[in-house]
Amino acid sequence: MTNPDPLLEMRNLAVTFPVDDGPDVRAVESVDLTLHEGEVHGLVGESGSGKSVTARAILQLLDDARVTASELTFESVNLLTQSEEEMRSVRGAEIGMIFQDSLSALNPVMTVGEQIAEVVRHHTNTGESTGTLSELRRKYVTGTDETSASWERSVELLDMVGIPDASTRANEYPHQLSGGQRQRVMIAQALAGDPSIIIADEPTTALDVTVEADILAELRDLCDDFDVSVLLITHDLGVVAETCDRVTVMYSGSVMEKGLTDSIFTHPSHPYTEGLLQSIPEYSLISNDSELQTTPGSAPDPRDRPNGCPFRDRCPIAFDACSEPLPTHSITDDHIIRCHDYARDRTEDVSSKYQETQEIEVSE
Ligand SMILES: Nc1ncnc2c1ncn2[C@@H]1O[C@H](COP(=O)(O)OP(=O)(O)OP(=O)(O)O)[C@@H](O)[C@H]1O
Q1: Ligand 1, residues 51, 58, 233: which to mutate, most atoms within 8 A of Cβ?
Q2: What is the ipTM of this complex?
Q3: What are the phi and psi torsion angles at 234 (to 5°)?
């Protein structure tokens, strides 16, 4: 199977936050990631692993950090050399963003319909003003022009993301909607710029599981309908299993394993990925009557990370070579692992893992 064309290419991304009176925070070290056309790509890892920093580096939203990469391109354009003005036209129109906390991301004093209409006006040529002072005053004093093309598009988008009675709800303010509805508004707002990519940073973490499942299914369908690729940031491998075509597993600023979701779930090869899988009931490699396992310990401080594999102090199979720089091994063309153990005894370890996991089903 050939992969669709890459939209976003990242090679050797490193992000460091300088600190005046102490060691720098090495938030991200050497991350490679490719987002292909039409795919939903999960970026997964525990808190502090560098997922959000990676996402913000793509959009050049890290004023206080040093960002380097041997490649960071969107549709072959080098994002690292874009001016702030050029990046402003990339954000929203080319790469949209959905944040976890919709209450702080949305404007509390503007109706949700107007917030989406504003994005439509900003990114598409509706012939309407994008907001002079008098325009803004008119909007707040006299209300929104409900006959405008941007308002109509806003209502249409709200309807598409599953807000019932969208033409009425469009006139409501964020606090009048439930958490799930606000996340749907954020999805509509991201789609309003007609982007090629949406970066969704923990978009359903604050929601209960049934609402989460509905919204993720909706996001997946909308991406197919709108032909948008998604980088979905989550700490939850269950979400990845339900939603993503491909997954990159991060730990303490580095990629540990990545590949097609089916491959990662049926043949997890990095001890960290195995630990993540064992901590969720549906995919645990251990029998149902045993206790679910979590990997003991915590991630190293990014100001004082040991050399070599950052997982080695928690890893059940660590050995001397793990203090050397992380290697990269291809298990297949679509499955990569960064682990010294893979080279140590590949035949025995991997083939036995394949036998253990072959009965596990992965949800479509
Ligand atoms: N502005 C900043 N200044 C200094 N350190 C930062 C800054 N922003 C993030 N970091 C550090 O960078 C590391 C990675 O943070 P990041 O937010 O990317 O993690 P994450 O994987 O997204 O975690 P979470 O799931 O909790 O959001 C963390 O150690 C964090 O404390």
Answers
A1: 51
A2: 0.98
A3: -155, 155
